[in-house]
Amino acid sequence: TFIFDTGSKECWAPISTCPVLQCTKTLYAHTLSATYGTGVTAGTLNYMTTTATGTYSSDRTCLANNAVCTGVSWQFLAVTSSTNYATNMQASGVCGLAPLTSNMGTKQLVT
User: How do 42-47 and 68-83 pair as beta strands?
Assistant: First the structure.
C-alpha cells in the first residue's frame, strides 16, 4: 500500500531485505517480480520522521489489482534500512507525484 503524495517527488518502498525492526510495514517482495531492476545508485530520503536508505531501482507499476499498469519501469528507492520509521503511517511506502523539476510550471504525465 502506498501513500500518493502530491508534495513529494520521490517514490520509495521497503524491500524484503529490510530488517523487520527497521521497516515495520509490509515489505515489497522484489525477488518475486520478473520486471524488477536492481539499481546501482545509493540514496537516502527523509519523509516525516523516517530516514530511508537503499538503492534506486525500477519495476513495472500497477494500480487496482493490475487493472492499470505503466508501460515502462518506474524508478523508486528500494529501502534496505530505515530509522524512525513512521509508525503512524498507514502505508508501506510513498509514491510522490510532484514534478521532478524545480520549475513548478512543468508537468509530468504518468502513463
Answer: unpaired
